[in-house]
Amino acid sequence: MLKIEGVYKSFSDGICALTDVSFSVKSGEFLLIAGSNGSGKTVLMNLIAGLDEPTEGRIQVEGHAGLVFQDADCQILGETPYEDVAFGVKNQGVKKSEIKGKVEEALSQCGILHKKDSQARTMSGGEKRRLAVAGIVAMNRDLIIFDEPFANLDYPGVKNVCRILKQLKEEKKTVLVLTHETEKILGLCDRMIVLDKGKIRFDGTPLEGLKQNLEDWSIRNPLGTVTEPSEEKLKELLWL
Q1: What angle do CA 20, 218, 151 make, to 5 degrees?
Q2: Which residues pair with 31 in a beta bridge?
Q3: Which among 163, 171, 167, 180 is positioned nearest to 220, based on CA atoms?
Q4: What is the pLDDT, as a whole number, of residue 190?
Q5: Number of CB atoms found within 10 A of residue 14's CB
Q6: Can you give the pTM of this predicted structure?
């Protein structure tokens, strides 16, 4: 689904945001890219989505990627949730007779069908995040990328987003979650990559990741001082 080879990204001020980043993602894989603020996560997401180009290296995406930004407000284009989701569907050239069904199905899947005619801008942060996901779901994107999906959400909002992520995994969607809040979602992941100062420091299973000294890469270990993480403890790292 995704192949990244020897990617570097430098900016005009001399800052190198990514250094020799290489990894691949299989179709249907649920991948967590963990990293603190400034680790290069958002830069990497923009490159994968084609919003920017690498200074060196190659990125190959099979199909189309859909993004759910940290700031969900920047993705809202319609006055109402229905209009917002319909905007992307219409731009795909979907037949007019099929638009209503696709839009309402996506809104229902994300738990906001009852809000379809509300003012989108007045929705809560969690509802706006779900609206952003609904727009991606309606367009049936092959790869879905979430940038800090739990930012500025309260506990119910986090649980709602986690339920959507769980549903996407059950549907065998290819999902990338970029976050430093590993304790909320790690139990759902097939694989974990740690990005620190623009470099990949770890790439392996979540259980192997929990055995690393994550604090060295400015990430809080969600199990605290537990020295021997288990599959049982790993399953608890999901807010549902």
Answers
A1: 95
A2: 176, 191
A3: 180
A4: 97
A5: 6
A6: 0.90
